């Protein structure tokens, strides 16, 4: 009788443990669902700066989209809507842009990289796959150099960069040209200069409505932010060449300004690179041809980010099995076909 009562107590304890485990699994699943369906607008704090970001979707892999100079998260709308079905998606408003704080401070790549770090920390994420457009590319590059353990890969979307001449004479000529470029932003002819600059980012096939939308948004960027960020863009120290050994997808638009050896040069910096070059599309590749871009990135991610599903990604059940006279508890993820 005592042995029978002892066995019953053991069974009751195991059943209780199994029920607790089942409740915990349900909690994890519900937590993920709540996180993905709650408000998508969030703020992370970097010193006294409020860094705004959008968080949508769910899954164990995270994509983080970084916009370009004088842009914001809305430039990634087509990507957010597409990728949120299979990934956790973050789009950041870099400091000084969109809904983020816009103090009168230097807007450096170091500041932008730290803002990205604060955002992923705030979202409770360990690693992200970075997608950077235009100035977003050097921001991503700086982040990878500073926080390599937080990155699973990179997508360069018509990334802006400078090759700084090493010869003194050529460097002096380059510096004079670049300084003139920055001064034009601060001059009385700023509007005319910006009109010319933005016109160079489009091609004949670029949709007129999209061009007007982009132009309006970029003109609305605060001058002190745009000027400071451009000064940072052309700072020679930011363009020291060093390889980054991360899986990399690069998509560039054919343009008169694109170097003929662009692919070769980028391969020297990103040995694990898959390179694509598209004709008849402007600088805003992901906005002009969203379906084509999303398909390319999706296929690349499916090759690079494949991993076994985590327990927290699926509903789960506790299975009780009688083995050698005692109950064993196993946690089994439900197959996709059984999910409701």
Fill in the keyword field for this structure.
340 residues, alpha/beta, Rossmann fold, eight-stranded mixed β-sheet, two-stranded antiparallel sheet, 10 strands, 19% strand, disordered C terminus
Short précis:
The chain is an alpha/beta fold and 340 residues long.
Overview of this structure, please?
It contains 11 helices and 10 strands. It has 340 residues and is an alpha/beta fold. The longest helix has 36 residues, at 2-37. The two termini are 45 Å apart. The protein is globular, with a radius of gyration of 25 Å. Helix 2 packs across helix 11 and helix 3 (109-122) crosses helix 4 (136-146). Helices cover 43% and strands 19% of the residues. The strands form 2 sheets. An 8-stranded mixed beta sheet has the order 1-2-4-3-5-6-7-8, sandwiched between helices. Strands 9-10 form a two-stranded antiparallel sheet. The chain folds into 2 domains: 2-32 and 311-338, no CATH class; 39-304, Rossmann fold (3-Layer(aba) Sandwich), CATH 3.40.50.
Strand content: 15-25%
Straight-line distance between termini: 45 Å
Q: Which parts are unreliable, with pLDDT below 50 for 5 consecutive residues or more?
A: 7-12, 14-37, 308-340
Widest β-sheet, arrangement of strands? 1-2-4-3-5-6-7-8
What's the helix-strand series?
Answer: HEEEHEHEHEHHHHEHEHHEE
Shape: globular
